[in-house]
Amino acid sequence: xxxxxxxxxxxxxxxxxxxxxxxxxxxxxxxxxxxxxxxxxxxxxxxxxxxxxxxxxxxxxxxxxxxxxxxxxxxxxxxxxxxxxxxxxxxxxxxxxxx
Length: 99
Fold this sequence. Notes:
The protein is α+β, with helices and mostly antiparallel strands. Helices cover 29% and strands 33% of the residues. The protein contains three helices and six strands, in the order αβαβαββββ. It has helices at 3-9, 17-26, 39-50; strands at 10-13, 28-33, 54-62, 66-68, 74-76, 80-87. Strands 1-2-6-3 form a four-stranded antiparallel beta sheet. Strands 4-5 form a two-stranded antiparallel sheet. β4 (66-68) and β5 (74-76) form a beta hairpin. α1 crosses α3 (39-50).
């Protein structure tokens, strides 16, 4: 994978109550990634950008919600992809430094 693709694969961290609980219990970090990114691409990008060892990657396609506008029309938010990255024992990524 070329250097340019590495910087484009990961769009940013995904922070929520669920992801912070998973981070503490399972040594996992959650990222928003490109919708066409594969597990090996995500693994390589995280290892090179954050200089950590990745054990495994789980990906999830998140469907966009349908929302009703003020005028009664239905609009839908865009779909996106989420990646749960499990790090090796003793490795960590501090997401406070990213924001």
